[in-house]
Amino acid sequence: MTTPTTEIIGILGGMGPAATADFYAKLVATTPGSSDQDHLRTVIWSDPTIPDRTEALLGDGPDPTPWLLDGSRVLRQAGATVIAIPCNTAHAFVPRIEEHVGLPIVHMIGEAARHLSTMSPRIHTAGLLATTGTVRAGLYQEWLDRFGIRLVLPEGASQDREVMTAIRAVKAGTGDDTTTALLVRAAQRLTEQGAQAVIAGCTEIPLGLPAEAVDVPVIDPALVLAQALVRRATTEGSTPQDE
């Protein structure tokens, strides 16, 4: 760690547990240092009882907002100074909780959009692999519009049969070569629509889609979020990220 920090990262997780563990591993791997003491202090609240975010957005399940708010408060009480949510779909509910949490929330989707805007050569069109909830909520569309990046999406059959089937398999712990093949096929359909990069817009997708299996860059928002947290914690005078 190049600069002493008082930051304590609060990870609001459990959506799902494997994605939370993967995110923490990425945070550790991204942090510069040569000893235990160089790493960031972190509090993890992994609550797999949080209702399904996609089901809530589609009107088929309970609102997860109370669980997200309670988890944020647990993190604050445990000493967290900033919150990260390694779940793309959960960001649809951030506007409902951010004023009540009392801590800044580093917005994973916003950070991913900024990252895309800085890539060279310039990205004009990006493809999105995400839950149906994230797609329907327009979370990436809203942010990419700010940076003048066009978004292409899987068509209906691909979204359900390939993307959602693969996400469910990873969550169930049954992901295998078939899961990877589904995601590779879905990514290829996006590149055929002109995508110059593919956003792995569900934290389960990087667990089933090797970046080298796609002909264009695969953007992992969880990794981008980890990098943003490290920058925030290791830069003197850092300010909260846009929410």
UniProtKB/TrEMBL annotation:
The keyword Isomerase is assigned to this record: yes
Protein source organism: Streptomyces camelliae
Enzyme class: isomerase
Protein family membership: Belongs to the aspartate/glutamate racemases family.
PANTHER family listed in its UniProt record: ASPARTATE-GLUTAMATE RACEMASE FAMILY, GLUTAMATE RACEMASE
Protein origin, superkingdom: Bacteria
Record keywords: Isomerase
Stretch forming the signal peptide: none
GO molecular function, one term: isomerase activity
Protein name: Amino acid racemase
EC assignment: 5.1.1.-
